[in-house]
What does this fold into?
Amino acid sequence: MTLHIVNQSPHAGSALRDCLNAFAEGDALLLIEDGVYAAQEKAPLELPENDVFVLSADAEARGIAIAPDLTAIDDLRWVTLCVEHTPIVSWFR
It folds into this structure.
């Protein structure tokens, strides 16, 4: 079970698209920094139905309203996700 971390906006590069192409059942996705723009209801790419997390502090800092089917988390939950998943892959291109 891989934890995929995306920190780039889906409008600025291919990181999220590349991540979703590698995403497998049982994996989890965490959107941080500008990656939280993908958490909006009308984001350009469709996210997996389960195990998609959004760092709430980053969404709040950018004024993003998180889609209701996604899970907002804090830093402590982020650490827990890192402990629960192996490997952890950061997507930044």
About this structure: Helices lie at 15-22, 56-61, 75-84. The chain has a mean pLDDT of 94.
